[in-house]
Design a protein that fits this description.
This protein has about 290 residues and is α/β, with parallel strands linked by helices. The protein contains twelve helices and nine strands. It starts with about 25 loop residues before the first strand and ends with a helix.
Length: about 290
């Protein structure tokens, strides 16, 4: 049953006005935007929602009212006790006081009933958003979907098409593991304090990867890291300067030329122009050497 909180008084956590620059905090205060995020996430009474960075609880209260269980992850040692006190009467609210980068989301979701779907929602500080996205990749199968509010520039990079300057390492990495969907922009005025950049909300839904082991995933990450090492350089020049496992698998200059001949990919192209299908072709070339 959905609880009615229409007349619920402001919580103590919602009355904390200041934000910490050291944690990149900008508190969401726009009720219209809050409602749009909730609508996008569409929490159900038989679902668990993991919320990274509940802050002052702008989303949390609605999540508690609509979902079966809410697990909030908060790093701020001053906000955490206020959140715990504010939601002390809500039996479906659980607080994890920890840096999200240190959370084992696989273990966290494993405690849920197998019949219960788990979704994730987060308003990520801009300075750490890329690191958290990469951290969550390894736990992607734990979630049915993930809804993020990020700096608009980050969402544009995540969803960039081949041949566009925004396309980079993060784009290729994310598109291998998720189907992505841009949802809507969020004005700086929706926050306090007001940030200098526009935000945007994006949805990620896990999909099956063509990689079958952690060894293959690590190699793929190394390949795209090398290919995008210097974005204005060609694939040939970046791969020529590779080190580590990729360099070992490439071999000498003649072998590098053979790589492009056998894959049919023009060595004069830049990494930003390579499609997902072509990345798969490149990876298959290397995987044949280690399988």
């Amino acid at each position: 049953m959905v609880k009615n909180s229409k007349n619920r008084p402001p919580t103590k956590v919602s009355r904390r006005l200041y934000a910490k620059k050291s944690l990149g905090q900008n508190f969401l205060v726009d009720q219209s935007c809050i409602n749009k995020i909730i609508s996008a996430l569409d929490p159900k009474s038989d679902e668990t929602i993991i919320e990274i960075g509940p802050g002052r609880g702008a989303l949390t209260q609605k999540l508690v009212n609509l979902s079966g269980k809410v697990i909030a992850i908060e790093i701020d040692r001053e906000l955490a006790p206020l959140l715990r006190e504010s939601f002390s009467d809500d039996e479906n609210f659980f607080l994890v006081e920890k840096d999200a980068l240190e959370v084992d989301f696989g273990a966290l979701t494993a405690i849920q009933s197998t019949a219960r779907k788990t979704k994730l929602v987060a308003n990520l500080p801009y300075y750490i958003s890329t690191a958290i996205l990469q951290h969550l990749i390894q736990y992607r199968t734990s979630f049915s979907e993930l809804v993020f509010m990020l700096q608009k520039e980050v969402t544009e990079r995540i969803t960039a098409e081949p041949g566009t300057k925004q396309r980079g390492f993060l784009t290729v990495l994310i598109e291998n593991y998720f189907n992505t969907e841009n949802l809507f922009e969020v004005s700086p005025r929706s926050f306090k304090p007001v940030p200098k950049v526009t935000s945007a909300v994006i949805r990620l839904r896990p999909k099956k990867s063509f990689l079958s082991s952690k060894t293959e995933e690590d190699l793929f990450r190394e390949l795209i890291s090398v290919a995008f090492a210097q974005k204005r350089k060609t694939l040939q020049n970046n791969l020529k300067n590779a080190s580590g496992k990729i360099a070992e698998l490439i071999g000498d200059r003649e072998a590098l030329n053979a790589l492009f001949t056998r894959t049919g990919i023009d060595p004069r192209r830049r990494a930003e122009s390579v499609t997902r299908d072509e990345w798969i072709i490149l990876m298959e070339y290397f995987l044949r050497k280690i399988r």
